[in-house]
Write a structure and sequence with these properties.
Chains A, B, C, D: Keywords: Lyase, Metal-binding. Chains A, B, C, D: This is Class II aldolase/adducin family protein. Chains A, B, C, D: It comes from Alicyclobacillus fastidiosus. Four copies of one chain form a homotetramer. Chain A has a seven-stranded mixed β-sheet with strand order 3-2-1-4-7-6-5, sandwiched between helices. Chain A is an alpha+beta fold and 245 residues long. Helix content of chain A is 43%, strand content 12%. The first copy, chain A, is built from seven helices and seven strands, in the order H-E-E-E-H-E-H-E-H-E-E-H-H-H. The two termini of chain A are 26 Å apart. Chains in contact: A-B, A-D, B-C, C-D. At the A-B interface, helix 3, helix 5 and helix 7 of A face helix 5, helix 6 and helix 7 of B.
Chain lengths: 245, 245, 245, 245
C-alpha cells in the first residue's frame, strides 16, 4: 500500500470518529474517500457504527459497489450511493451520508436549506431534494439504478437532502466533507430558528462564493480539523483508559 | 436457571443502562422482557432507577403482577402495565415504559406522532393515545383493570402514548424495543420541528412497512445495539474507575 | 451540633451539587433548609457557586438574614428571600432560588406555567408571578420589605416566578424541593413545546393532587434522590481524581 | 515582562478555555485583552482554536494589526477587528468575537436582541447590527477600513451583531467580557423562546442599568469566573490525564 493510501485510511478512521463525536453520525451513516492511487475505487468501512471503525475495517470498492480483494467482511448495504457519486463526479474525493437531526425536518417539508451563516457558506449554490425512492427497498439506497438517480439529483452541488432520511455531503477532499457535514447541521439549526423569528436574509451568491473560498483555504480547514480531532480524542480518553488501550 | 434466562437477564440489565444513557429513562421508567423459559412470566427490576439496575435486582412476575419466589425486594408499582400487555400480546417479548421529553407535548395536544423519518419507520401503523386514568391513582397504572385498559388501547400497535405521562413501547424482542424506544423520541423531535416549519410529508404505509422489515433485520439491530452498548459502557467508565469497580 | 443538624448540612451540600449537575443552578442561585433544631433559623451556604459548596461553607441565619455566630464569610446578598419565606411559611422546610432557562420565557410573557405532565404534578395549585421589584436593587431581592413582598406573593403555593429573573421553589423537606425544582424545568420545557403544537390539556386539579401525593411518597422521593445523587457523584469523579481528592 | 502582563496572559489563556467549554467559541472565534503596560497594544493568540491556546501562543499587536516582535507565528486574519475597537474605545480592555448559535438567527432577521433576563442585563443600551461587508472578503473582517466600520457601528455599546456571522462583545476588563459573552447567548435563547410564546416584557433601561452595576461588582464577577474556571479545568481533566500532562 502506498504512503498516500495509508494516510487516507488513517484520516478516514479519524473522520469516522470526528463525525460521531460531533453528533453527525451515530449508529448509522458512513463516510468514504476516493482511493488516492486508483480514482476508480473508493475506501469505506465494513458494516460498523462509525465510532467503532479502525484501520483494519476499511474496505476498497469499485463503482458497482463490489469489494476489491478477498475480504470476508460484510459491507454497508448503502455503499452503492457512494459508488455512483464517485463515478459521476470526478471532482469529488470524499462522501458522507448522515442523518443529522436538524436536517430532516427540512427534507420532509420541501423547504430549501440555504446558506444563512458564514460557516454554512459552502452550500451557496443550493441543496437539491431527493424523493424518488424504490419503495420496496425501505428508503435505503441499495441498488445501482437508485444510486444513479441519487447522483443525478445531486448534480454538481455539494449536498443532497433525502426526504425523511438524511443527507449526502460531498467535497474535493475529506477535510472539506467533514467541515461541510458539521456546518450543514449548524446552518440548518440556525435557519430553523430564524424562520420561526421572521423572514431571514440569506447569504448572497457572491457572499457564499467568496466565503467558501476562504473557508476551504488550508488555514481554516486545518484549524477546524485539529479542533475536531482533539475533541474526538478526548471523548475517547476515559474509555481507552478504562479498557487499558 | 437456563442459559437462555441468564442471557435474558444480562441483556435486560444492559437495556436498562442503554436507555438511561440515551436519555430515554431517567429516575423513573422501566423496561422488561418476557421470561424465555415460561411465556406466562416476565422479568423486571425491583423498584430502582434503571441506571442502577444490576443482575441481582431482576425479579420474576406473573400476569397479575405477583412476584415469583421469595424475594423481599419492593417491586415497581406500575408492573401491572407490563403484566397485562404480556397477557394480551403473545407476540410481544419486551416492554418499555418511559417519559422521554419529546413525546409528552404530543400526548397533551392530541396530535398523532407519525413515522416521519427512516429510523422511526416502525411506527407506521400509528400510535394510539390513552387518556382514561383512574384519577385517584395519580395517573399511574397500578391496578389490574387499568392495566387491561392500557393493553386494550395499545391493541396490535407498537406503542401507546399516555396523556401527560409518557409512552409504552413494545417489540418482538428486547433489541427491537430498545431501538424503537430511542428512535420514537428522535422521530417526535423531528416531527415537532417539521410541524413548526410547515406541513410535513410522512412515510407512506408501504414505505414504513418495508423500512421496518430492513431495520428489524439482524444486521442493523446488532449494529445499533453494539453502538448503544459501547456508549453505555463508556459513560460508566469514569464512575467505575473512581469507585474501584 | 445535633446529629439531625449534621445530616441536614450533609444533605444540603449534596442538594447544591445535584441541582448544579442537573443544570438548575449554575454560577448563581442557591438552596437552603430550615434548621432542624431551631425552626427560627435556616442553613445556607456562604456566597459561592453551588457546585463548590462544602460542609464548612454552610452558615446559619435568622429571619432578618443576620448570620448566627462569628463567621467571617460573606453571605449571599439574596438570603433575605429565604428568610422571609421561612418566616411566613412554617410548613416550608427547604427553599431553592434558581434561574433555570426554560422558566424565564414564561415569566416575561405573563403566561402561567401549569402542571402538564405527571412529574410536574406538584404545581397543580398554580404558580404566581412576581413583578414588583425595587428597581434600584437591580432585580435582586436584597431588602426585608421586598423579601416580605416575595413571601406574600408566593402565598401558600409551591413556587413563585420572578419576572425576567427566575423562580423560588419551596417544599416540606429538602428532597421535595430538589425534585420540584428539577421537574418544574422539565414541565416548562414540555409546556413550551406543547403550546407551539396546539392547545394542551393540563392536569386537572384532582389529577395533580393525587399524583403529588404519590410523587412525594417516600419511595419515589428516595429513588429520584439516589438517582440524582449518583449522577452528581459521577460528574465529580473525573475531577476529584485529577485533583487527588 | 511585567507581573501585570504575565497575569493578563494567564487570564487570557483561561478565558480562551472557559469560552470554549461554555460553547461560546469553537473551532473559530477569538478573545483578546488590551496590553496592561501599553494601552496602544493588545494581546491575542496566534491562529489556533481557542481550546488549544497556551501561554506561548499569545502574540502582541498594534492598532494596525501588526505583530510586535519577531514571532514567526501566523496571526488570526480577523485581528484588525480587535485592533480598531481598541483604537476607538479607550474604555474597552477586552474583546471577544464569537459565533454562538443562539445569536445568529436574530442577526439574519433584523430583530433586536434586548435584555430580557437579569443575567443579560448588561445589554440594556441595545446591540447594533452590522451588515456592510466587503463582499469580496467572504464576510470576514480583514482590512482596516472594514475594521473601522465595525468600530463605528459598535459605537459606545457593549456588543455588535454581525449579520449571518456572529457577534463582537466588549468590556472594561476580561472578566466582564467573558460574562457578557456567555450571558448574551443565554439571553438570546430565552428571548427566542419568549417571542414564540408571546410578547415579552424586557428589562427597563433603569432595571438594566441597576442590574449591570450589581452584576459587574467584584463579588458576582469573581464568583462566576471561578465557576467557569472550574468547569473548564474539569473538562480538561480526563484529557490531561490520558496524555500524562
Amino acid at each position: 500500500m502506498s504512503r498516500l493510501a495509508e494516510q487516507a485510511i488513517e484520516d478516514l478512521v479519524l473522520a469516522n470518529h470526528i463525525l460521531s463525536c460531533e453528533g453527525i453520525l451515530e449508529a448509522f451513516g458512513h463516510v468514504s474517500v476516493r482511493h488516492p492511487d486508483n480514482p476508480d475505487h473508493f475506501l469505506l468501512s465494513r458494516s460498523l457504527s462509525p465510532q467503532h471503525v479502525q484501520k483494519q475495517d476499511i474496505m476498497e470498492f469499485d463503482f458497482s459497489g463490489n469489494p476489491i480483494g478477498s475480504s470476508s467482511y460484510r459491507p454497508y448495504s448503502e455503499r452503492i450511493l457512494h459508488a455512483k457519486i464517485y463515478e459521476a463526479r470526478p471532482d469529488v474525493h470524499a462522501v458522507c451520508h448522515n442523518h443529522a437531526l436538524a436536517l430532516i425536518p427540512f427534507s420532509t417539508t420541501g423547504l430549501d436549506i440555504k446558506s444563512i451563516c458564514h460557516v454554512g457558506c459552502m452550500f451557496f449554490e443550493g441543496i437539491p431534494l431527493y424523493d424518488d425512492y424504490d419503495v420496496s427497498d425501505g428508503m435505503l439506497i441499495v441498488n445501482e439504478r437508485e444510486g444513479e438517480r441519487i447522483a443525478r439529483t445531486l448534480g454538481s452541488k455539494r449536498a443532497l437532502l433525502m426526504r425523511g432520511h438524511g443527507v449526502v455531503v460531498v467535497g474535493e477532499n475529506l477535510k472539506q466533507t467533514v467541515m461541510s457535514s458539521i456546518y450543514l447541521a449548524t446552518n440548518a439549526e440556525i435557519q430553523y430558528r430564524a424562520m420561526q423569528l421572521g423572514d431571514p436574509k440569506y447569504l448572497s451568491y457572491e457572499e457564499g462564493r467568496a466565503a467558501t473560498e476562504t473557508m476551504f483555504g488550508e488555514v481554516p480547514l486545518e484549524r477546524a480539523w485539529n479542533y475536531w480531532k482533539e475533541r474526538a480524542i478526548r471523548s475517547e480518553a476515559g474509555y481507552r483508559q478504562e479498557r487499558g488501550l
